[in-house]
Amino acid sequence: MDRLIYVAMTGAKQAMEQQSTTANNLANVSTPGFRAQLSAFRQAPVRAADGSTGTRTFVATSTPGTDFTPGAMQQTGRALDVAIQGQGWLAVRDAQGREAYTRGGNLEMTANGQITLHGLQVMTDAGPAAVPPGAAVTIGTDGTISALGQGDPPSSIAVMGQLKLVNPPERNLVRGDDGLFRPANNAPVQADPNVVLVAGSVETSNVNPVSGLVNMISQSRAFEMQMKMLQTADTNEQTANQLLNFS
């Protein structure tokens, strides 16, 4: 009885967490460069104070993983949209001022010429990316940023820097709550000259909405099953108490 309660209780809790992960994936089905998060669970015995294990077990969360499968490349024709072809990441400065990495490439230019991604500064080989306000910007396959001021002749195009593109091993990357990835040791990664950009395109999310909806239904049914097990355990407990009272 005790074992049933523990398994059902923790199973229901983890089913809810799995639903949250699936819901977050579905909410980002249209987010450029988004990588789906994977959930995993394992059975763990309950240990007593002396280290011994009894019959009680519960469901524990394993280290969550990430599906690094590339998303489809969507052509937009927009000068500030970039997609990474093959392996690689784009460096940005997160809200805490640390370097982080993303596959999103729908860049924006602020009124003062800063190039940003969802409000975060995009990094170059020499710091935050910036161009003269109002300039026409083009980005090369190697991340080179070229700018042409308003009214300037084409011959006056100036190189304003090179986007920092990195390619760390995926197994060393840790996803943050903000959706950005960082090395496990939090040390900045050196730029990789072999990373190639495609201008005028963005990489779509790798979330499959059909699979996500199917998983959501399956997880909902799993939660209901765990709750029924709890109800069954409670009913069995009441029946056992009645039998003891009759004895």
Features:
7-stranded antiparallel beta sheet; alpha+beta; 26% helix; 3-stranded antiparallel beta sheet; 247 residues
Write the layout of secondary structure elements.
Elements (H helix, E strand, L loop, with lengths): L1 H26 L9 E2 L2 E7 L5 E9 L3 E2 L6 E3 L6 E4 L3 E5 L5 E4 L5 E2 L5 E3 L2 E5 L2 E2 L7 E4 L4 E5 L9 E5 L2 E2 L6 E3 L5 E3 L12 E4 L1 E3 L5 H38 L1
Antiparallel strand pairs: 1-4, 2-3, 5-20, 6-19, 7-8, 7-11, 7-16, 9-10, 10-11, 11-12, 13-14, 14-15, 17-18
Helix pairs in contact: 1-2
Protein described:
This protein folds into two domains: 1-68 and 207-245, no CATH class; 73-203, no CATH class. 26% of the residues lie in helices and 31% in strands. The chain is built from two helices and 20 strands.
Count up the helices.
2
- How can the largest sheet be summarized? 7 strands, antiparallel
What is the mean predicted local confidence, pLDDT? 87
Query: Hey, roughly how much beta strand do the residues contain?
Result: 25-35%
Domain module count: 2
H/E element sequence: HEEEEEEEEEEEEEEEEEEEEH
Shape summary: elongated
Low-confidence stretches: none
Class of secondary structure makeup:
alpha+beta
Radius of gyration: 25 Å
Helix content: 25-40%
- The count of β-strands is 20
How far apart are the termini? Answer: 20 Å
Short structural description:
With 247 residues, this protein is α+β, with helices and mostly antiparallel strands. It contains 2 helices and 20 strands. The strands form 7 sheets. Strands 7, 8, 9, 10, 11, 12 and 16 form a 7-stranded antiparallel sheet that branches. It has a 3-stranded antiparallel sheet with strand order 13-14-15, with no helix packed on it. Strands 1-4 form a two-stranded antiparallel ribbon.
